[in-house]
């Protein structure tokens, strides 16, 4: 195995672990009611109380890939996250994200942005969230400012 193959293999394994960690965090945050779902709802939370935001997930799928308005919103959200030291990732399977954060009784129209917020009482901590922060920090050291994570299949 060449050095390049080893590096590629390590990145694949790291991405798989990170996808699992993201899934754990999303499920835990949903249980603790620490999610904000939707581009506009997320923008409101970021504007009113940016310190309450612990993590940001942007979701894109092929259907919305060429949506200019959505791309502008993503750019603004990313800039806001960078300015406020909020870790941010991108996932490429919005349907899987909806399965994780959505309520079975309602159809989510806009799950392109999901914020994980800190509860007001500070009672919720998740070790998987720390793994995600470390992953983002490491990715930034490679100039990958919005790393892409693949969520594990069911």
Question: TL;DR?
Answer:
A five-stranded mixed β-sheet has the order 1-4-2-3-5, with helices on both faces.
Overall description:
- Helix 3 (68-83) links the parallel strand 2 (53-59) and strand 3.
- This protein has a 5-stranded mixed sheet, with helices on both faces.
- The chain has helices at 3-31, 39-48, 68-83, 94-101, 127-141; strands at 35-37, 53-59, 87-91, 113-117, 148-149.
- Helix 1 (3-31) runs antiparallel to helix 5.
- The mean pLDDT is 86.
- The chain is globular.
- The protein is 51% helix and 14% strand.
- The longest helix has 29 residues, at 3-31.
- The chain starts with a helix and ends in a 5-residue tail after the last strand.
- The chain has 154 residues and is of the alpha/beta class.
H-E string: HEHEHEHEHE
Output mean pLDDT: 86
| Class per helix and strand makeup | alpha/beta
Number of strands: 5
Poorly predicted ranges (pLDDT <50, ≥5 residues)?
none
- Enumerate how many helices there are, as a single number: 5
Distance between the termini: 31 Å
Percentage beta strand: 5-15%
Strand order of the largest sheet: 1-4-2-3-5
Helix content range of the residues, please? Answer: 40-55%
Radius of gyration: 15 Å
**Morphology call:** globular
- Report the biggest beta sheet as strand number plus sense, adding barrel if it closes: 5 strands, mixed
């Amino acid at each position: 195995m060449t050095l390049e193959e080893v590096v590629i293999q390590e990145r694949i394994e790291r991405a798989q672990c990170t996808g699992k960690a993201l899934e754990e965090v999303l499920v835990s945050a949903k249980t603790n009611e620490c999610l904000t779902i939707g581009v506009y709802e997320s923008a409101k939370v970021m504007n009113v109380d940016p310190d309450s935001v612990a993590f940001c997930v942007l979701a894109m799928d092929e259907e919305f890939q060429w949506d200019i308005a959505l791309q502008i919103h993503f750019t603004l959200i990313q800039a806001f996250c960078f300015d406020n030291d909020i870790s941010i990732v991108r996932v490429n399977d919005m349907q899987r994200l909806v399965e994780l954060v959505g309520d079975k009784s309602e159809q989510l129209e806009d799950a392109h942005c999901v914020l994980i917020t800190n509860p007001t009482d500070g009672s919720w901590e998740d070790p998987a969230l720390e793994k995600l922060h470390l992953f983002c920090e490491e990715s930034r050291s490679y100039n990958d400012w919005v790393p892409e994570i693949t969520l594990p299949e069911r």
